[in-house]
């Protein structure tokens, strides 16, 4: 099961996504729970690289309703960065005080060396010992692995020296080994405004959604398509599938969409990213999630054709130029879906 929820009330759409999910199949009231966001560096979350504190707030509210008493937030930022600084800059200190949820900088933790598939990895004792790890990544692009989401987010449970060593080990296979050794209980993906091309942020693409599901590989396979990749385009996903860490999402996966009729409208006008592709788009009241999919698709493809139309303003209208989304279903050529995934738009653009 994968749940997607849309909206601007980040804590509420997160809480509601979990309520609609099957997390209660895995979670028990007596569990200790650790939330593992992505705070790669101390940058405000609206830059597209760090997990919004409101998403964690929604999870904490859900857990408290569920009867969970032992909750903490754990993270180790990337090499040379400070999780303590990131907690401050991203508003986690306020969250911690508000709900009495401790913030744990894993850089201060002890690490256990474990072996898997020929790799010896040092992993945080706290992360290993928690009863239930909730993985809370940002859905964003990555300059080396194309996608960073649930599976790659677990790197923050290792010492910084190990994070650097990962790169010398080729990244993809050690990421799989890490996910085999450190089990995720459930995933809640911050798909609010992930970065278009770079894990450190700076080109956020507003999409206003959260995605929840149990298996990190299955959830990542779905999220890969949201930013314009097929699951097999992400090496650690195809390796992880071969090593039976999980299955790709498929037509058999129960996909539950909430607030599909109230997707926030696109406000991405001010972002640099819009400038880069504005000349190719005719937009009329497009939902931000739809516009985001088109931006990711244009960024991954070298489409140089006619102007592309998108938005609710095209409902019931027909035209010869290419259209994106079900709102343009009367066009001669259109990419279906509400919203369409970026990977579907790429296939469509390639086909015309
Ligand atoms: S197809 Fe229309 S209603 Fe659906 S997401 Fe796109 S713009 Fe919104």
Blueprint (SSEs and pairs):
Blueprint: E1 2-6, H1 10-20, E2 32-37, H2 53-66, E3 70-75, H3 83-89, H4 92-99, E4 103-105, E5 111-116, E6 119-124, H5 125-129, E7 132-136, E8 140-142, E9 146-148, H6 150-153, H7 160-168, H8 172-181, E10 186-191, E11 209-213, H9 216-226, H10 235-242, E12 255-258, H11 272-278, E13 281-283, H12 288-300, E14 308-310, E15 323-324, E16 334-335, H13 342-351
Parallel strand pairs: 1-12, 2-3, 2-7, 3-4, 7-10, 13-14, 14-15, 15-16
Antiparallel strand pairs: 1-11, 5-6, 8-9, 10-11
The structure holds iron/sulfur cluster (SF4).
Iron/sulfur cluster is lined by residues 263, 286-287, 289-290, 311-312, 325-327, 338-339.
Class derived from helix and strand content:
alpha/beta
Helix content: 25-40%
In whole angstroms, how far apart are the ends?
Answer: 34 Å
Biggest beta-sheet profile: 8 strands, mixed
Overall pLDDT score = 92
Which CATH architecture of the largest domain would you pick?
3-Layer(aba) Sandwich
Number of strands: 16
Count of helices?
Answer: 13
Query: Uncertain spans, ≥5 residues at pLDDT below 50?
Result: none
Instruction: Give the bound compounds.
Output: iron/sulfur cluster
Q: Kindly provide the name of the CATH class of the largest domain.
A: Alpha Beta
CATH third-tier fold name of the largest domain: Rossmann fold
The shape is: globular
CATH-assigned homologous superfamily of the largest domain: LarA, N-terminal domain
Radius of gyration: 20 Å
